[in-house]
Structures are given as C-alpha cells and as structure tokens.
Amino acid sequence: MTTEYASTGDPRRGIELLWGLREPARKGPKPRLSVERIARAAIEIADAEGLAALSMRRVAERLGVTAMSLYTYVPSKAELLDVMLDTVYAEVTGRGDGDDEGGWRAKLARVARENWALYRRHPWLLQVSTRRPVLGPNLIAKYDRELSAVDGIGLTDVEMDLVVSLVSDYVHGAVRGAVQADALVERTGMTDEEWWRRAGPILAEVLEPERYPLAARVGAAAGAEYGAASDPERSFEFGLSILLDGIETLLRAKSATTAGHDSGAGTDATS
C-alpha cells in the first residue's frame, strides 16, 4: 500500500487554502466550482477506489470540467489531499448531546470509537501519514474536542496531549485489521466465516495438535468464538479497555503522589 504524506505543499499556501483565504474572488454569476466541491469529489473517488486512483484529472472528470480549471482553486494534489483530510475531520468535530456525559473514561472511549468509525468510512485515511499535521480548522476543532475529554482530571498539558495521541495511535493501528478485512471480503467475494468453514476442515487434516498444543487449543477456541481467524472489532474494544485501564493507573499514581506531597507539607508545617 503506497503511503501519501500530508502537508507536503507550501505551508503558507496550504494553510491559507484550508482557512478559506485562497478562494478566488469573482464577480458575476456564482462559479461552478469551489474548494469544498472539489474536495468532496476527491473524497468520493478515494472512498470508492483508494488514493491510488486519485488524480487532479480524475477529479476534473467527475466534476465535468478540465483539469486545468481545478488549479484556480487548488494549487496542486498535495494541497488537495490536505483539504480532503480536513474535510473528513469535520465529521467528528461537532459536540453532540452526549459529549458531557460520563467521566473521562467514557469520553475517551467515545473519542476512540468515533475515530474508529471515521477510518471505516474513509479507509484511505490509513494511507496518509500525518506526521506533519494538516493545520486546518477542522483538525484544530477535532483536537480541541478530544482534549476536552481529559481536561481537569489531573494531567499536565503535555500529558493531556500524550494521552490523546496514545488513543489516536491505538485506533490507527487497531482499525487497520478491520479495514483490511472489509477490503478482503470485497476482493474475494467471500466472508471470513465462509472462508473459515472451507479452510478449517483442510487444516484439521494436516495439523498435528501434539506438536503445537497451545496453538491448536487456543486457535480452536478462538475460531469457534469468532467464526473466523479473528474479530477486529472485538479486539479493538478489548484493547481499548486495557488502554483506559492504563490511563486510570496513571491518574491514580499521580493522585497518590500529590496527596503524599500535601501530607508531607502539612507535617513540615506543624513540626
């Protein structure tokens, strides 16, 4: 799978485009195109066929215009990719009715599941390295919303950033298996359960359980449970629970350290 890289264009040109400062000024009738319309067309292509199919020419064909006409709005494919990313980030920036419900754990779990669903809707996101983030309004809003899940729970600002990054990195890794499973079913026309029903009996003919006792026992139990070789969504939820447990351990340790310092200060003051 080819990796694309976000924010590879000119930083000023890209940020101005993301924040709506490069929309061409025109007089007369409303123009046929806009940056948003171009981005939506590009997203539709990427959703259906992956980033390998994306080009300025393909987007132009989808919109019924010439490729050259796109460059009036979007300077290059590099900036187009950045706008695409920021556009889909808008899907998880709005604060819903349930955002304030529950404690930090419920809020972080909600953040993780929303990002999981975002990757499932737009699997091409896994093909983009965001080591240099797309500094658009929707990314900033997304980051702010995710930070609010851990605001005021005893973390420093840097720790808040690290926790949000930890959750984001976990989702990015965990969802890859689910996206690959989706693509595999589409490519082969066979579900994992169907494949397992065909492959399982053949494996039983050649596998010697006494040579691999743990693999045979655990693999049989897992296969019977999942009806497949694995269950990406169940693995995601299991790992998320363990991850949140780890963050809770961190918070307890910080709370105990703070209490110890306060106790020590009180003892010194009265001695």
From TrEMBL:
Annotated Pfam families: TetR_C_1, TetR_N
UniProt KW DNA-binding keyword: yes
Superkingdom of the source species: Bacteria
DNA-binding region ranges: 55-74
Gene Ontology molecular function: any one: DNA-binding transcription factor activity
Keywords: DNA-binding, Transcription, Transcription regulation
Organism per entry: Thermasporomyces composti
Segments forming domain HTH tetR-type: 32-92
Key word Protein transport present: no
Record-linked PANTHER family: HTH-TYPE TRANSCRIPTIONAL REGULATOR RUTR, TRANSCRIPTIONAL REGULATORY PROTEIN
GO biological process: negative regulation of DNA-templated transcription
Name under which the protein is recorded: TetR family transcriptional regulator
